[in-house]
Design a protein that fits this description.
Layout (H helix, E strand, L loop, with lengths): L1 E2 L1 E4 L2 E9 L14 H29 L2 H15 L1 H12 L4 H17 L4 H22 L13 E5 L4 H5 L6 E6 L7 H9 L3 E3 L4 H4 L5 E5 L4 E4 L3 H20 L8 E2 L5 E8 L4 H7 L5 E5 L1 H4 L8 H15 L3 E5 L26 H7 L1 H14 L4 E6 L5 H21 L8 E5 L2 H5 L1 H4 L6 E3 L1 H9 L17 H17 L3 E3 L10 H7 L3 E4 L4 H9 L3
Parallel strand pairs: 3-4, 4-5, 5-6, 10-11, 10-17, 11-12, 12-13, 13-14, 14-15, 15-16, 16-17
Antiparallel strand pairs: 1-8, 2-6, 3-7, 7-8, 9-10
Bound molecules: phosphoenolpyruvate and magnesium ion.
């Protein structure tokens, strides 16, 4: 049996699909002669062209013209005679097909990356894709196509990047296992959003587990049973059946208002990381979106998303939610959320460093692009903005000034937009302690217990030796939560919670007692949270 951290509930029973990190190291490939190397290169280009044409056709059907055109753009670049003839010239000078492809593509990547125009810079990532695919074909490396794994697959990997997760077909994936991460890491958040059982931080999982091995993944207890015998398999099939039955019984809460026994109505919202997740929130009975983690739009790509791309994402969510509240959190990067191209300096203590609202206030060009996109999208629904990692009143005032400036600029440019209420996340001890002062500046509060717990308890969540202290039930954390709710009530502003603790059945009665208005949880926990609130006095 293997142990890890159970981060997404449920039992996954199926066959392992191990996704190994692939190495594109070609140093062992020997040069034969020019003709042979050119033949190898040209066959790889031909195969790449065929595969990409086919993929573009499939993508056109499933995702639309825009996505297909990106792939067709790759083909056009590769068909540019200059690119291929440069590779052939390299081979004539003694390079292997791999080295020729790498050298020429890297030259284009460097050239495009240095240009000040967003569209040209995008082309650098296209060429990177071409280079990696050509090398993969030349080296004969087979890649697992995550989107096409058979039903009942248990995906095992070191970690999942957002782009890997976006290719997961939740109907075919029985469970997810990774070597790193914990309850609040992004793979966990995405697994819960998709309702897939997941166990993270399983040491060396992708080496210990082999492809096609039969696995039981227990997302409650954080354990993985390899090659289970018949009786274990039966036991877990039964547990799975009961769990699914219990889940089914929650559907009675789907379209009812969430009302406590004392007759108080509460709102239960969903947390999302990408525009498509809005559907997931609706399908799970969410009454709004309490946290849109916009950093996902910025992660796992080569360049910052444009204002237009962001506008597209925010307005898609607003339209999908059809008038229901959508709380968009401004860019929260730094700490555990790395974005290479934003050139965030390496820091000794990144969790106490230049992150979230601090970074945005110092990089107002990036912040303004996001705010402009949000204001423009606000015309399509009930959008609100929320500022992460606030520690001072001044930060909120400065952010609000920038937001007001963006509105003025849009007006001058004749672009339509709507003003949005600005709320504050309470996720630092400082914010909780001055929540009476912040309440005068904020349209609403949302308590981020994931960070609040870590900062109040001075605990590094990644350090197993102190992880016992990472506990929302410590009196200091509870006091910070209670104080925040009290100060919001006194100022007459709504207060919600969007950290994982909002769905903790043991905490919900206290939160109800203190008067929390809105609970924003993973889509898969919405109905259970509604039930738990309805059972409160
Ligand atoms: C939090 O800190 O509670 C929160 C919701 O934000 P994140 O988990 O994205 O840091
Ligand atoms: Mg946080």
């Amino acid at each position: 049996m293997l142990k890890g951290i159970g981060v997404s509930q449920g039992y996954g029973i199926g066959k392992a699909v191990v996704i190994k990190d692939i190495s594109l190291d070609y140093s062992a490939v020997k040069y034969t002669d020019a003709e042979d190397q050119k033949n190898r290169l040209h066959s790889a280009v031909e195969k790449y062209t065929e595969d990409t044409k086919q993929l573009a056709q499939e993508v056109r059907k499933s995702a639309g013209d825009k996505e297909a055109e990106i792939l067709e753009g790759h083909l056009m670049m590769l068909q540019d005679p200059f690119m291929l003839s440069q590779m052939d010239d390299n081979i004539d000078s003694g390079a292997t097909a791999e080295a020729a492809a790498n050298t020429v593509c890297t030259m284009f990547i460097d050239m495009f990356s240095g240009v000040d125009d967003e569209l040209t810079r995008q082309r650098a990532s296209d060429v990177k894709d071409i280079r990696d695919n050509l090398l993969r074909l030349l080296l004969g490396i087979q890649c697992v196509d995550i989107s096409a794994v058979p039903k009942g697959s248990v995906l095992v990997a070191k970690d999942f990047t957002p782009s890997m997760t976006s290719r997961i077909n939740k109907d075919n994936v029985a469970a997810i296992v990774t070597e790193v991460g914990g309850v609040t890491s992004h793979s966990a958040i995405l697994a819960r959003a998709m309702g897939i059982p997941a166990v993270l931080s399983v040491a060396n999982a992708s080496n210990i587990i082999s492809d096609s091995q039969e696995l039981i993944v227990d997302g409650f207890k954080g354990k993985i049973i390899t090659e289970p015998n018949r009786s274990l398999l039966d036991e877990y099939l039964q547990k799975q059946k009961e769990y699914l039955k219990e889940k089914e019984s929650l559907t009675q809460y789907f379209s009812k208002a969430t009302v406590t026994k004392g007759g108080v109505v509460k709102k239960v919202y969903g947390n999302i990381g990408k525009a498509e997740d809005a559907q997931n929130v609706l399908q799970n009975g969410g009454e709004g979106i309490g946290l849109f983690r916009t950093e996902f739009l910025f992660m796992d790509r080569e360049h910052e998303p444009t204002e237009e791309e962001q506008f597209e994402a925010y307005s898609t969510v607003a339209k999908a939610m059809d008038g229901k509240e959508v709380i968009i959190r401004t860019l929260d990067i730094g700490g555990d959320k790395a974005v290479d191209y934003l050139s965030i300096d390496k820091e000794e203590n990144p969790f106490l460093g230049h992150r979230a609202i601090r970074y945005c206030l110092d990089n107002s060009d990036i912040f303004k692009k996001q705010i402009r996109a949000i204001l423009r999208a606000a015309q399509y629904g009930d959008i609100k903005v929320m500022l992460p990692l606030v520690t001072t009143v001044d930060e909120v005032r400065r952010a609000k000034d920038i937001i007001a400036k963006c509105a003025e600029e849009l007006k001058k440019e004749g672009l339509s937009y709507k003003q949005v209420p600005v709320g504050v996340m309470i996720e630092t001890p400082s914010a909780a302690l001055i929540s009476d002062l912040l309440a005068k500046e904020a349209a609403f509060f949302s308590i981020g217990t994931n960070d609040l717990t870590g900062y109040v308890m001075a605990v590094d969540r990644g350090n197993a030796k102190v992880s016992g202290l990472y506990d929302v039930f410590q009196p200091s954390v509870l006091r910070a939560i209670e104080m925040t709710i009290k100060n919001a009530k006194a100022a007459g502003i709504p207060v919600g919670m969007c950290g994982e603790a909002a769905s903790d059945s043991r905490l919900i009665p206290l939160l109800v007692e203190w008067g929390l208005d809105e609970f924003s949880v993973s889509p898969s926990s919405i109905l259970q949270t509604r039930k738990n609130i309805c059972h409160c006095d």
